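Inputs:
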Amino acid sequence: MGLFDRVFAGADDMLAKAEQDLSAAIDELGIDAPMVMPDTGYFLACIYAYTGRKVAKLSDLKEAFDDVKALCTREQKTEDIFKNGIATAIAAEIIEAVKYAKSPNPYEDSIYHGHFSDAEVRELGVPLVTQEIPGFVVIIGAAKSDDEAFELIKGYQSRGIFVFLIGDIIDQAQRKNISMGFAVRVVPTGKDIWSVGHIISLVVRAAMIFGAVQPGDWDAVNEYTFKRIFAFVNAFAPVDDITVACGGGAIAMGFPVITNDENNMWRVPKSLIIQPDTSDFIETSLEARDIKIKVTNIDIPVAFSNAFEGEIIRKKDTHVDIDGSRLDCFELVRTKQAHEIEDHSIILEGPDIDEIEPGSKMCAGFIVEVAGKNMQSDFEPVFERRFHNFVNCAEGVMHTGQRDLIRIRVSLSAFEAGFRLKHIGEILYAKVKSEYESVIDKCQVRIYTDPAKCKELRAEANEVYDARDARLMALTDESVDQFYTCILCQSFSPSHVCIVTPERLGLCGAVSWLDAKATFELDPNGPSQIVTKNSLIDERLGAYEDVNEAVSKYSHGALEKVTLYSIMEDPMTSCGCFECICGIEPFSNGVVIVNREHTGMTPLGMTFSEMASMTGGGVQTPGFMGHGKHFIASKKFMRAEGGPARIVWMPKALKEIVHDKLNATAKDLYGIDDFCSMIGDETVTEDAEALLEHLGTVGHPVLEMEPLL
Amino acid sequence: MKDENCFTTVEQMEADSAKLYELSKASGAQTWEDRNKNQTPHCKFGEEGVCCRICSMGPCRITPKAPRGICGADADAIAGRNYLRMVAGGCSAHSDHGREICHTLYAAKADGYYKVTDTVKLINLAKEWDIETEGRDIYDIAHDVALCGLNEYGKPFGTQKFLKRATEERQKTWEEQGISPRAVDREITTAMHMTHMGNTADAEALVRQSLRTGMADGWGGSMMGTEFTDILFGTPSVRETEGGLGVIEEDMVNIIVHGHDPAMSEMIVQASEHKDLLDLARSYGAKGINIAGLCCTANEVAMRHGVKMAGNFLQQENAILTGCVELIAVDVQCIFPALGPLSECFHTKFITTSEIARIPGAIHIKMEKENALEQGRQIVKMAVENFANRDKNKIFIPKTKEKAVVGYSCESILKQLDTVTNSHLDERNTYKPLIDCVTSGVLRGAVAIVGCNNPKVRPDYSHIEIMKKLIKNDIIIVASGCSAQAAAKAGLLSKEAKNLCGAGLKRVCELADIPPVLHMGSCVDISRMMLLATGIAKDWGVDITKVPVVGCAPEWMSEKAVSIANYVVSTGIDTYLGIEPQVKGSAKMMQLITQGTREITGAGYIINKDPHELVQAMIDGIEAKRAALGI
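Outputs:
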């Protein structure tokens, strides 16, 4: 049987299973039963992306199934293979979706992840853009041995590749005690091959969210995934027809399949690759998908990869807890003269972590001293804020917080592997030096653990922080001569441009004006370019000729104008990786803001996912705008419409994050005390009418403001 | 994204031509369309190949009432002899072109105008021919290689050296069937001798000699022409250019180079970059000097310098009709004598440069190798000085042009294929990635589309219709000659043409970063296609006749094309013709060229004047070959 016939046979198998499961569900729940996937604004994303059909009920799913059947044409042409392959993926989505029709969380009691929420998809945006995640692998089947499975998964993980597991390899990973989960970027997706539907759903949502691909535009979906999603498949022998058919879908989307099955298999360059030597799977695969891994060699006894960034170290697994909330801890970058620094010197003053009782707390201060001709003190906080990402990448090391509120935990296993404080120094040295090589010529790290010394230095550090804050406070949109673009996301969202100003950081929350400035200095041809502000059009809106020119130039003509301070008139677009989405609430004339982490309902009758799907991909949607958390307390937050006083509802957790600053802004702007207490949240109500009532009761200023519409 | 509707159509090209003709009537210009009307209907006896003019007893014409000529030659003998004489004419044209290039290499010197550019290719060829290379001056090697090449044309014993490049199986077939060509001149002479009054009257023997004479071209003269041109001017590499009459620039001095042998045009291209001549052009108010090509000279300079391609065979007059061509310089083959009177209707200077092609109405500047660049400068200067003589009332440049990527020599194709290999698994420098695409079914096969334009069918329409249908069906195309230019004009040589392809070929184009139609060069470069097919068969490990690769000449007209068709069939590749060879008056000859050769070489002609039926026959033929291979 030829390759094409295997795909056809596999598609038939998957469709038969989907049809069977679907009719069983209809028999059980009735044809009008709701069919909703949790935490997504994209319905059944594969069906939505490929056919444009919005599935909400089982009857819709039944109709969608007929679309899928129609895709299974049988000419001996690649076109037919691609169509059958995608049909197989959609059938897989149907099989999995039916489980969610029966239960809101069918994988609750299992290790399997199942469906990915929109928030998870969006969370991937920034690391994909920055290439912290250089690609995705979907591993299907069982490796020849548990050890080989371990090597493969760890190999990918250490290269930053996001790993999805399907089938028996999950059991192998469990037997080898591999920590799994979305946060550590090794996801046990599901037991059966049809769990691949969840992965395809995630991928097509990325196309719709970041690429503004229109639902139903088949070619655009595949074009986006081929050009911009660096995924690939490793399928272990024996590969059955149904997996071959899924492979057809993967290849249609541009994802090569690498297998060790030589039986009844065909080589297709860069698409279907037979690699009998499974120990060479990783390098063969990366080359097949043109993924180049940026390697930083760091001399530490544990693995170092972005994949470990989300790793959580529990108390019982902790060797040492460097706890800034209880003890004197801090981290700091300082600019020095070149002669004051011995490059790559790591100096520890005080006891190391092998001199303490396992499981105890200790204090520590980290000072990274840098020198370079092009170094500016404004870059210090930019580098310093990255310590969190850097240190976190070490396996068995967890870092949270910043400045003097840090917390670092080193796990028992990392300690046993030989991890000591000097290794944190090694990490900081290597990362700071490599990431900022154009401005840093020399770098050394000082680590202090003596309590008295820590106390003394922490006080000094605080003076530095205060001075920086004063400088930041002084930085307003009016006080600087230029803004910056940020088009880091264009590899994903080709028509979006951020304009970053001192009072409006990038919508992903990761790029402040100082960051953008540093990015420009570090790479003058890079993603951040200067935007002058010479020709103001409208101060209230924050409209500038210069900004419009920049937006038009860097969006390649997709956008003509944006305003900096309005949500109604030419609001700034978003790539899709925004931290928060804000949308107008028509009853109160205010706006509702939701952060990505909030999965619940809002008074708009929409979840974050649903609101987020209104915008993104560089599309301008007046009344909806993506933004960073810290923009909320900015005096420029929708200034054109009256400013933060428009905020009528936020999730409680978000309110807590912005509480102090927002109150201070409100006090400054409107003379209102404790403005945050006037803002509704989910503990007050999720209903628009009840919210209006609440606003009246608390005397929210929005009620006195001009109508928004 | 450039979609299907954004590519230049034949209708647009025809509308451009119609506008040009309409405007040109005021200038008193006449074109092939006028003359074609005057010549129609064509002589039926000539068309069917049954008019014998070989001796002065005749002409004799075969009819049912007069089935034999005066000497007794029947339709089979007469059609067979005429056919073989066409092959001999074609073979001599290609081979004399090839020989001229041999002479150019022989004259090459380190401080001369003609130099060795591709030394690797020279040394490889020297080694292939057992010529000592160790420690020798490159020009000493070049002279020995040139001499050895020249010897291939007239050597008293043995067969063509390049035959050894073929697969074992082909060599065996040729030997067994007695069609291994001896010296090139010998085969042409034998062909002329056999067809002389009173010699061969057996159609099969005439067809066999046609195959052998064709072989002397494809595996002899043409192949040497290609190899030696590469050594002299560089093996073509991938580069971008444009195709269509729109490449003529109104505000520049336009020089058209036309013909086949690039020795002259290379010098003109060089001279056009000289600062003093550019300054001179500016002093006349021109923005610069624009060189554009016609026919195979265009193909040669496009794939080595990115020179733009103004058009193919039946567009040669159109270029002059734009009123913006200061000078047209020609070398050999496919040059209308009509260019003489036509250029007189405009300010255009018409320059002939070869003793092979002397034409009334032209200024003749005989190219001399030792003087070549000065002559190139002289020609460019004439053009520049002619800029001021343009008649503003006679100017019309059609806007149509398309982007094109050209220069896919076998070497370039291999290099491109290397980009899709995986260093952990695959050998480099093989055709295996292409073979994998074909065996898996992603690509169904490959077609080599070649040949001219012919007013007997709608010009360019057959080329373009056939190409579009093939690429839609995941069949990759290599093209050369006027066919490649038709593809260029229609945008099919652009990478965006992937949007016209089936899903399989589209993906291959994206991954390998190629257009779906690969420009392999001029008509002598069809020898490259023979090496490509040979390379594929060798890497695949099957006989060339089994590989799902076919040849096609939808609009052929010249004797060269008949010669080409003979060596393609001899190489074991089925050849689909859109114009009937002039042998229809002999059922035996028709049987021999479509079926009889299959017994000899394993391949034959498939003839159909309807391009849609012809392309379907090709697709069916390719699928049949796949089925036979079990893929």
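Remarks. Chain B has a mean pLDDT of 96. The two ends of chain B are 34 Å apart (CA to CA).
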